[in-house]
Amino acid sequence: MIIAKTIEEVRAQVRAWKQEGLTVGLVPTMGYLHEGHASLVDKAVSQCDRVVASDFVNPTQFGPNEDLEAYPRDFDRDCALLEEHGCHMVFYPEVSEMYAPDAATYVEILSDMPKQLCGQTRPIHFRGVCTVVSKLFNIVTPDKAFFGQKDAQQLAIIRRMVRDLSYGIEIVGCPIVREPDGLAKSSRNTYLNPQERQAALVLSQAVRLGQTMVEEGETDARRVVEAMTAHIQAEPLARIDYVSAVDGVTMLPVETIQGSVLVAMAVYIGKTRLIDNFIVEKGE
Ligand code: AMP
């Protein structure tokens, strides 16, 4: 596997691949990789001739009081996992390679979409995500890019950005990978102490509760959200940021579970903010 630290190295390699007629897939990550990331690489390897993963903790998507400094990092372990899963190149830039000290250009969706869900408490988050993903698209020029459904709002926003800016890159969504007991895999799970790790199960339990209600015919979004909220509130270590049912494309709140609906949550377990969700695709 090639380790590229500069934009120029990535461009030269991708140019060579494209001259051979090979297709290129991109898997953007912030590193500290786990089986969730590996599933994206697996899918990319199955659909593209060459796969590039990026491993970059992007400062522009962190707010002033968030965990940028504390975010876990282990590049050697990341390389081992990527190589094992057949990744061809990892792009591992310094912050200075990605952002000039006076960088002042951002990509931002100017609708209510990035203000919903995580955007309520993380107002600059999606501007940072769109900016770094745009840069990665410009650097790697992939045919396809792979994103996890775990970050459902991010996936919807990237799809919208790709449409609005005519990127011509196919966005492939990949299902949430979970621990055996249900907890969605996340680099941030490493912050949890044993007691919090146990308490964190309320997220996936609430997902299952909501899914069961919908499967059994519940169509009132408020009732689903209320039942999930009550379940989470029963856990003393949990503090809800939001539990919401929104349109699967626009991310705007819905009252009825009909068509494509995303039921998503962010919950603090101690000081760690975790997210989880499920999607309902229901005919008229
Ligand atoms: P991150 O490194 O957390 O920014 O995540 C990089 C990519 O991996 C994003 O597209 C995430 O949605 C995806 N991802 C993270 N955790 C999971 C998971 N448990 N299952 C599936 N995809 C995931």
Give the tags.
284 residues, alpha/beta, six-stranded parallel beta sheet, globular, binds adenosine monophosphate
Offer a concise description of the structure:
By secondary structure, the chain is an alpha/beta fold.
Your description of this structure?
- The mean pLDDT is 98.
- The protein is built from 9 helices and 9 strands.
- The longest helix is centred in the middle third of the chain and has 16 residues, at 125-140.
- The relative contact order is 0.13.
- α6 (152-164) links the parallel β5 (144-148) and β6.
- The protein starts with a strand and ends with a strand.
- With 284 residues, the protein is of the alpha/beta class.
- α5 (125-140) crosses α6 (152-164) and α8 runs antiparallel to α9 (221-233).
- Helix content is 36%, strand content 21%.
- The protein has helices at 7-19, 35-47, 75-84, 95-98, 125-140, 152-164, 194-199, 201-215, 221-233; strands at 2-4, 24-29, 50-55, 89-91, 144-148, 170-174, 238-247, 259-269, 272-282.
- Strands 1-4-3-2-5-6 form a 6-stranded parallel sheet, with helices on both faces.
- Bound molecules: adenosine monophosphate.
- Adenosine monophosphate is lined by residues 29-30, 36-37, 39-40, 147-148, 150-151, 174, 176-177, 184-187.
